[in-house]
Write a structure and sequence with these properties.
mainly alpha
Length: about 280
């Protein structure tokens, strides 16, 4: 398996880029020379990119380069938080529904169907509006509307695995449900669920940025990419650098993690390559 990862050039390239993005967030103070992303100088407001401020400054005189670098922390932390939460909650619900079936399955899946009936971003906006505007609440709102995808996927995988002979043999031999879940259900379901989570990083980042852009996520003066786009939208003609650089940051991170997820899927699910070869 390790050799497969090393042989996949796309995976290696985008893995390095993803690590560099994460390191940029971790070592933001080093990269920016200790500059404060929240402190500005009104005398330097709305300066175009120059040697002193390579990304220019915003309307408060804050260096946009510093804010973009620090924004990686807020954006990546919240995005990974959402992905982890929806992965854990959705997987747990799906496995429980698939294993126990009956009334438990019907109740959980009807709840999931009810959530899917509403457009995801619209429902997230409603939840965020009810519980209040903050980055933490934006994470909660997206988690509330996104877990159903993993629950339905996990349930379908468990139902397929439950019909296998080795699972039937374990049930006949008197194995406990908890043992069957740990020994058979999770190990056979997790690879596909992990691939799905990896490919969802970019999408979750866009949803969080959209909530912040609309005023339901990060609050001033937080250096968060979606909120920075909101700040610059009114000055897009006179100071386009206020939206260009945060937008490029979002674009770069989304592309890197989407391509990383695609390459991970190619490695861990070789059936896709076989089917593509037949076509």
């Amino acid at each position: 398996m390790i050799k497969d990862f090393l042989k996949n050039r796309q995976f290696m390239i985008f893995s390095v880029l993803a690590v560099l993005i994460i390191l940029t967030a971790v070592f933001a103070p080093v990269i920016t020379g200790g500059a404060d992303p929240l402190t500005g100088n009104i005398d330097h407001a709305l300066q175009a990119p120059s040697r002193e401020h390579i990304f220019g400054t915003d309307k408060m005189g804050r260096d946009i380069f510093v804010r973009v670098i620090y924004g990686a922390r807020a954006s990546l932390t919240s995005t990974f938080g959402v992905v982890i939460l929806v992965f854990l909650i959705g997987t747990a619900v799906g496995v429980i529904a698939g294993c126990f079936g009956g009334v438990v399955d019907a109740i959980l899946m009807r709840i999931a169907d009810m959530m899917v009936a509403f457009p995801g971003l619209v429902l997230a906006l409603a939840v965020a509006g009810i519980i209040g505007s903050s980055m933490r609440n934006a994470v909660i709102a997206i988690t509330v509307v996104s877990w159903t995808k993993y629950a339905r996927l996990a349930r379908s995988l468990v139902l397929k695995i439950r019909d296998r002979d080795y699972v039937s043999a374990a049930i006949v031999s008197g194995s406990r449900t908890s043992h069957i879940i740990k020994a058979y259900m999770l190990p056979n379901s997790l690879p596909i669920l992990v691939i799905t989570a990896a490919t969802d990083v970019g999408g979750m980042m866009l949803e969080l940025a959209a909530l912040s852009f609309l005023g339901f996520g990060a609050k001033p003066p937080a250096p968060e990419w979606g909120y920075m786009l909101n700040e610059g939208r009114g000055l897009i003609q006179s100071a386009p650098w206020m939206t260009i650089f945060p937008g490029l940051a979002i674009f770069l991170v989304v592309v890197v993690f989407n391509m990383l997820g695609d390459s991970l899927r190619d490695i861990m699910d070789p059936r896709d390559e076989q089917e593509a070869g037949k076509c």
